[in-house]
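User: Just a sanity check before I run the rest of the batch. Below are the structure tokens for the first item. I only need the designed sequence back.
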């Protein structure tokens, strides 16, 4: 068992080290989000399964706080309202659960972030299409080869792994880095 544990830790470390090559893209995304928030825009998050939980986690970091006592920042996880998710899923199909919410809640000065380990989640792709119609900026967090989301998002961070667990671990790290940088840029040094 000890060898398996060490193997998982080593895989994690390798993935995170490779992620450092995306630091410039992460910086660009931080600048986009900071600009959005300074223009009274909001961040809308969408994802499925573990990525849905990551959306809730990241929205909470923005609305509550990450490391700095500060005012709340406008951020919504589109993964949390079971009545909307089930009614839209039932009436329009599961692929529309995010696009319908974006149609209702999103403005052209907002940012829509889609998290998908495969990069091929149809409901996220549909959400990005709707966001683009509105004029909102779209950001993807993916893994593998980026999938279709990499071609649909304005910006996409592709975690260099095909292991779902390692991709999800990297997505949380990316989210935390973004939160730390935004708190520092928007409110001053921590």
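Assistant: Here's the designed sequence for the first item:
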């Amino acid at each position: 068992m000890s060898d398996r544990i060490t193997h998982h830790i080593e895989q994690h470390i390798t993935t995170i080290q490779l992620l450092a090559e995306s630091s410039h893209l992460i910086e660009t995304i931080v600048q986009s989000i900071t600009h959005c928030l300074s223009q009274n825009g909001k961040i809308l998050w969408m994802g499925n399964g573990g990525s849905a939980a990551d959306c809730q986690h990241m929205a909470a970091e923005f609305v509550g706080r990450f490391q700095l006592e500060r005012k709340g920042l406008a951020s919504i996880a589109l993964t949390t309202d079971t009545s909307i998710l089930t009614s839209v899923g039932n009436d329009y199909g599961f692929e529309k659960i995010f696009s319908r919410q974006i149609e209702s809640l999103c403005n052209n000065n907002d940012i829509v972030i889609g998290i998908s380990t495969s990069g091929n989640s149809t409901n996220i792709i549909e959400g990005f299409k709707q966001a683009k119609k509105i004029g909102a900026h779209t950001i993807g967090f993916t893994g593998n080869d980026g999938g279709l989301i990499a071609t649909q998002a304005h910006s996409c961070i592709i975690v260099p792994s095909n292991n779902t667990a390692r991709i999800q671990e990297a997505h949380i790290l990316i989210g935390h880095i973004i939160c730390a940088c935004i708190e520092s840029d928007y409110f001053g040094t921590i």
